[in-house]
Amino acid sequence: DDAVANGVHAISGVVDS
Known about the structure:
This protein is low in regular secondary structure. The protein contains no helices and no strands. The protein is flat.
């Protein structure tokens, strides 16, 4: 999954806290 600056994975859509 590509983690974006906002912490959201663009592919899986999982949010990184």
